[in-house]
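User: Predict the structure for this protein chain, please.
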Amino acid sequence: MTTEKKIYWGVGIFSVVIIFGSFLIPGDRPNKEDLPWHIEHPAPNAVKVFGLTLGQSTPGDAEARFKEEGEPSLFKSPAGKLSAEMFFEQINLAGLRSRVVLTADISDADLQVMYERGLRMAGTGSGKKITLTPDDIAILRKAPISSLTYMPGVKVDETLFLKRFGEPSQIIKEEENGTTHWLYPQNGLDITMSGGEKPILQYVAPTEFDKLISPLLKQAAQTTK
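Assistant: Here is the predicted structure, written as structure tokens:
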């Protein structure tokens, strides 16, 4: 997954306090749609975050929303699973530099055709990255967004998540690497935290949440045996 890459920004402690303090105290506040806890449900089982409705908005809509051009790519996991993604290396949300990865809802058959048409292939730490043709990039830009992964540029204390999201419905810890997942199925949200590293927030439609957590539950069951 491209989300496993780690990029560190030189954000001072003072600026971090100012940024997150503005989320917690009254007064001038950033655009609410720039906040990761501003989650709307425009329809039953629908999630809207950062002004984008999963399953309806497209990567092209996200480029217009973020006022940035994303990096489109096709990825192949070591297990052979293909996914088409739009990566935003650095966008400004609520005054905080962040990264966002969008996964497009494209059928396996169409992804395979894109793979076969790919222009170049390069190895990554977790699979292969395929450069898409201009025509396939256009298809990706118009496809619905199936998941959105948000990576803030600073570390966030758990107390802030508790204040804004409440207690998680379930907590799963990966014993192998110490990563902890806070799960909020009603919002289709998985907050991943690992020691002192920056958190990762992944959003999907609530109806797709089982697909998101089933690998975690399977791994947890194997660990307890």
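Residues 209-224 form the longest helix (16 residues).
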